[in-house]
Amino acid sequence: MVHPTSLLLAAMAVAATAAAAAPIISGTAPYRYQYMPHLLQIPAHLSPKNDHGLTLDHNDNIILTYEPNANDSHCMIKWNPDGTGGAGFGPGAELCAGTPHGLRLSHEGPSQTPFLYHANNNQVLHKTDMEGNIIWTVEGPPNNNSKFLPYKPTWFSTPPGSPYVFMADGYGSSLVHVFTTEGKYTGNTFGGKGTADGQFMTCHSINYDPRTNQLVVSDRENHRHQWFNFNLTLPSLFEFSHKSTTLTSGNASRPCNMRFKYGNGMSIVPDLVGPVGILNEKNELISTVQVGSLLGDQGHKFPHDALFLKNGDIVVATWNPGRISYWKKLD
Q: What distance lies between CA 305 and its chain's CA centroid?
């Protein structure tokens, strides 16, 4: 005769195994996703301290930029479009010194050559080729003018076809500075700290919105996004158009970015509080992926960037500690 305690222990073991194998699913149909823990593995010899920026390269490979721990000489990892593989790349210390933060892809010139723009919190901007080789570096605030201090760059916007790039000083003075694609400051700066239209409280990211042909700023501590008119050939135009409160976490939402590629009119918004939101063309929240609450025990606590993949899946990078996760679209 089997002892009741043995039966109970066996049942508990079966239940624990089933629970461990249960898929982690979040979101609202048709934007419902399943966490795929075997994808986007960090190579063993790399050690992200904080994960910061994501992009897809010209071949839809997934690229992460991160702040490395002391024993790590890299600050970028590239995976295949399906989340497999994974290798560190780039020239090392020169690119990775300080705090690498925002990453943005740009296609430029008649041949639409791809480049990467890097914003570093330690007052450094880089433009590189797709292997991370540095083309130019700009150190210090624009024109080294102390009136722009404090200065801690967070992200670039690279509008297609424009000879200008827009850089958000999100952790510094909440200003947007306009540079040329050659790294020259144009003398044009906008924004500043505040809550009024056109002002920011941490302009964490700036991006081109192809749905409206405008620039959109993730105004994190004002819990909103703001859209601006700009001109491809006139760097002096940065005109407030409209705004939208982001409520992925209610009134406490802290949106870090807004991305559109492969969204089919939708946008994806990582919220530092914990979730990732899918917004429709009217910027209404239609699905919430609860990354922080579902994976927080594994370190995926603070979504800092997120993007759509061509196949409909999504990728999420979280801040501290640095983690990255792959979510397969179910519906």
A: 3
Tell me the residue range of the domain where 138 lies: 47-264
Strand 323-329 versus strand 314-318 pairing type: antiparallel
Q: pLDDT class for 14, splitting at 50, 70, 90?
A: very low
The answer to the question of residue 106 being in a domain is yes
Q: How long is the chain?
A: 331
Cα–Cα distance for residue pair 319/308, rounded to 1 Å: 18
pLDDT digits (tens, 9 = 90+) for 44-81: 999 999 999 999 999 999 999 999 998 898 999 999 99
Q: Alpha-carbon distance 115 to 164, whole Å? A: 14
Domain CATH for 99: 2.120.10.30
